[in-house]
Amino acid sequence: MAFNSTFTPQDQEATAEQLASERGWLLLEFGAPWCAHCQAAQPLLAAAMQAHPQLAHRKIEDGKGRRLGRTFAVKLWPTLILLRDGQEAGRLVRPDNAAAIRQLLDQATANS
């Protein structure tokens, strides 16, 4: 699947239980379409994701009334959470450079 270069949520029905049952590596991106930090991170995330095309990536809209963000203790946007077999393996809050994102994503390659 090609990288979505705008913050457009893709899976609003996902639950923590469903994500916990996922096998392999999965990058969750919590944010909101109107969030300036989320929009600014998109080119950085796109650049970092080019080296990891096999990595599953889900954009999840967070905000008032959204339980999934609370389950993952998301406080600022964007928050990137790397899961391995449903367990958190890494987290990056408000990334401001592609190198930091690549470092997070490299865990998926190094520990496959």
Automatic annotation (TrEMBL):
Taxonomic placement: Bacteria, Pseudomonadati, Pseudomonadota, Betaproteobacteria, Neisseriales
SUPFAM superfamilies linked: Thioredoxin-like (SSF52833)
InterPro entries per record: Thioredoxin-like_sf, Thioredoxin_domain
Pfam families: Thioredoxin
Protein name: Thioredoxin 1
CDD domains tied to this protein: TRX_family
Domain Thioredoxin stretches: 1-110
